[in-house]
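Quick illustration, no need to memorize.
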Amino acid sequence: MTPSRSGSKLTYDGVTRPVKRLMGRVLLGRPLNRLVTSNHVWVVAFHRVDDLGFPDPLTCGISEFADYCDFFARTFRVVPLSQQLDQLGRHQCGGTLSITFDDGYLDNFENAAPILERFGLPATFFVATGFIGTDQVAWWDRSMPEAPRWMNWDQIRSLHARGFEIGCHTVTHANLGSVSPETALREITEARHRLNTELGTDVDLFAYPYGGTANMSAENLAVVKGSGLRCSLSCHGGVNAIKANPFSLRRIPINSSRGETADDIAYQMLRNLAPMKDKMHVDVPSETRID
């Protein structure tokens, strides 16, 4: 293949992609994977799992998701997010990975959950309660040929009954980097109350909408900490130290918009070991981010 160029830079697909795949396959394959992963706590984030027929930065294809799950199962100790939180600060937390989903899309129930169950993998679903059971179209989905659908409360309860964790993601997918502390408190309190009522349990896991560093203010982080929640997860990339602050947990966002294989994802995981200067946030303008 003749490499394509942008200026003098070789493109990802032209030359470096095979090299990156090889790096991912070698460094996160046996016997090296334990050496590479054991000093960190890993969290990945998905949004949709569906076969759309066109590239979409929030969507992972169904077969690709199955391949990623196989990779996760072979490479990490996949545990529930709550178990990671219980073990933060302890050596046994190192090398663990938790799988999370944001927003509450129907394909999480129809496509992702059966694949997770096939591999015996736990996961946490963070839902924006105002979307559940509605026909509302989120602003970031309005340009899609067919708007994705949301789960209903019976499906959320089914996931919970099957052992999956459910977390809070506000009511309206609020930007906690810009709303007032009063609004943030209302969004969190009302969402959590609805989840507690529907599930009959205390929901104390939280991922903040949009997930960039600009999407959580210091004032609203204080609101989160004071609301009885036990964590706050971002979505701009990076991995976590074993002694990480549970209110500053990083997640690696994953999709298959460029046809990423499991080896590509392995390299992406490795790349997130590098010191992060909010790479994902810098690469994607904040007004277009919908993590």
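The domain at 34-138+145-284 is CATH 3.20.20.370 (TIM Barrel).
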